[in-house]
């Protein structure tokens, strides 16, 4: 596997800063970084995201990455992430990033 690109490094750095019990969507991350889009963030996470708290990155509707639902729920429950059924409650769990 190749080394992460500069964009990937910025994505992974941001994911590491998402506080326990909170989440950001793929699109939130792209918007916060003002580059890329949800698909590009998803590609970074699928390629290099295993070493960061990947369960804190979700779809815009709060659903976890496909195939990782059970592991996400376990992490979310341990961290006290606000939930709506089997998804993160985006109204209460969304992290908006560090203040400027």
Would you write up a description of this structure?
The protein has one domain: Arc Repressor Mutant, subunit A (Orthogonal Bundle), CATH 1.10.10.10. Strands 1-2 form a two-stranded parallel sheet. The termini are far apart. With 100 residues, it is mainly α. It has helices spanning 6-17, 26-33, 38-48, 69-79, 90-93; strands at 24-25, 57-58, 83-84, 87-88. The longest helix is centred in the first third of the chain and has 12 residues, at 6-17. The chain contains five helices and four strands; from the N terminus they run αβααβαββα. The model has no long low-confidence stretch (mean pLDDT 95). Residues 6-65 form the Methylated-DNA-[protein]-cysteine S-methyltransferase DNA binding domain. InterPro entries: ATL_DNA_repair (IPR052520), MethylDNA_cys_MeTrfase_DNA-bd (IPR014048), MethylDNA_cys_MeTrfase_DNAb (IPR036217), WH-like_DNA-bd_sf (IPR036388). It comes from Sphaerisporangium corydalis.
Question: Which terms would index this structure?
Answer:
100 residues; two-stranded antiparallel ribbon; mainly alpha; 46% helix; two-stranded parallel sheet; Arc Repressor Mutant, subunit A
Quick structural summary:
By secondary structure, this protein is mainly alpha-helical.
> How many strands appear in the DSSP assignment?
4
Please write the CATH class name: Mainly Alpha
Whole-number total of structural domains: 1
Biggest beta sheet attributes? 2 strands, parallel
- Identify the overall geometry: globular
């Amino acid at each position: 596997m190749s080394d992460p690109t500069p964009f990937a490094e910025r994505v992974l750095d941001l994911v590491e800063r998402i506080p326990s019990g909170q989440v950001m969507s793929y699109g939130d991350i792209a918007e916060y970084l003002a580059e890329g889009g949800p698909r590009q963030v998803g590609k970074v996470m699928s390629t290099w995201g295993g070493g960061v708290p990947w369960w804190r990155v979700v779809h815009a509707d709060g659903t976890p990455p496909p195939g990782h639902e059970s592991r996400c729920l376990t992490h979310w429950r341990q961290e006290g992430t606000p939930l709506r059924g089997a998804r993160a409650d985006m109204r209460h769990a969304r992290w908006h990033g560090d203040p400027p």
